[in-house]
């Protein structure tokens, strides 16, 4: 195993149960309340609607594809501008958990396209512009399948060499990415940043601190909630990040708020985490379906796992790499927190991501 680090400059709910659910979801906030249970929210017009500037070095287009469950997924396809040589290596990109493709995934996709890859940033099922009912639901199975469906799409694209496909997963979609690659042998390399194992944190709490009694209580409460949801027009939402941080001293909530609620940084009107909350029952399937059971079956294909030295989630990356087989690399970014690796382009190790995929998608 390779274990590397990178020096970088440091950059800078009143109910306990609700705060814990927010953090377990990698924020766990949700999609826009007024439209959470109707049709997918679609962009109006053709104007640039991302949280990052558009690059002149990249051609962008909106695409649709369908997963194995018949759910239509919407993605942003980025290609090197004027690139006549082909076919090219390609990357599917998704995350963070509860974000949309206009946030961190799109930023990663655009920058990797500037570096010569065809990239696809997509909204997972039930989120953003993608289909699926009800809205604001997560699934360890379906969201893993979403990555595989993205690989289907890329492998059928004329500009793509289907023998040179990789995946980047961010935050909770890092765990989903590892699960997808363990099963999908078409993928030649996988990288994650600020990885969360959503099944572990929902089943056991942070640092595996949830007692058996607390787990049983949580499952009992969500089980009863199903009757409430079934008798209502729409499932209940867990609630999102607070609009104000007044009286909130939890550093994790403060960190997520600084990204998802700031319109000058990461806020997006279609983002789950920028708005009103996942469905209350979203953790149910995660709690009994551990995502990383077969992580060793990624081998002999390489994995690059990147985490910030100051990230509360760092232990997920360390434990995943410990459980995986070679070849594997853990890269710790000195001074970075969890959210720094969403959008701080001077901190995210794009040079390493480029060299990793160039080497392993050759």
Automatic annotation (TrEMBL):
This is Alpha/beta hydrolase. It holds the Pfam family Peptidase_S9. Residues 109-209 form the Peptidase S9 prolyl oligopeptidase catalytic domain. It comes from the Bacteria. GO terms for molecular function: hydrolase activity. InterPro entries: AB_hydrolase_fold (IPR029058), Peptidase_S9_cat (IPR001375), Polyketide_trans_af380 (IPR051411), TAT_signal (IPR006311). Keywords: Hydrolase.
């Amino acid at each position: 195993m390779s274990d590397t680090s990178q020096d970088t400059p440091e950059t800078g709910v009143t109910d306990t149960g609700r705060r814990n659910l927010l953090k377990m979801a990698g924020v766990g906030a949700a999609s826009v309340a007024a439209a959470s249970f109707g049709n997918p929210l679609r962009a109006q017009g053709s104007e640039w609607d991302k949280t990052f500037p558009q690059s002149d070095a990249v051609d962008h287009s909106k695409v649709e594809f369908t997963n194995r469950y018949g759910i239509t997924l919407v993605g942003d396809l980025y290609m090197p501008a004027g690139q006549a040589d082909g076919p090219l290596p390609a990357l599917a990109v998704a995350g963070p958990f509860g974000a949309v493709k206009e946030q961190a995934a799109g930023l990663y996709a655009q920058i990797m396209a500037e570096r010569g890859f065809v990239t696809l940033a997509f909204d997972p099922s039930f989120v953003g512009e993608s289909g699926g009912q009800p809205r604001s639901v997560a699934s360890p199975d379906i969201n893993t399948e979403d990555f595989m469906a993205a690989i289907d799409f890329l492998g059928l694209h004329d500009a793509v060499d289907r023998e040179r496909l990789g995946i980047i997963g961010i935050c909770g979609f890092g765990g989903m990415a590892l699960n997808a690659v363990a099963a999908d042998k078409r993928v030649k390399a996988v990288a994650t940043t600020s990885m969360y194992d959503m099944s572990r944190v929902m089943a056991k709490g942070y640092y595996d601190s949830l007692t058996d009694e607390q787990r049983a209580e949580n499952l009992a409460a969500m089980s009863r909630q199903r009757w409430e949801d079934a008798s209502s027009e729409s499932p209940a939402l867990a609630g999102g990040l607070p609009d104000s941080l007044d009286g909130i001293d939890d550093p994790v909530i403060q960190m997520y708020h600084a990204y998802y609620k700031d319109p000058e940084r990461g806020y997006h009107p279609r983002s789950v985490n920028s708005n009103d909350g996942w469905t209350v029952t979203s953790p149910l399937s995660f709690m009994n379906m551990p995502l990383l059971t077969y992580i060793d079956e990624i081998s002999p294909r390489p994995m690059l796992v990147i985490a910030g030295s100051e990230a509360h989630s760092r232990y997920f990356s360390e434990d995943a790499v410990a459980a995986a087989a070679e070849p594997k690399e853990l890269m710790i970014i000195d001074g970075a927190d969890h959210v720094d690796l969403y959008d701080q382009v001077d901190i995210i190790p794009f040079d390493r991501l480029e060299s990793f995929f160039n080497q392993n998608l050759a």
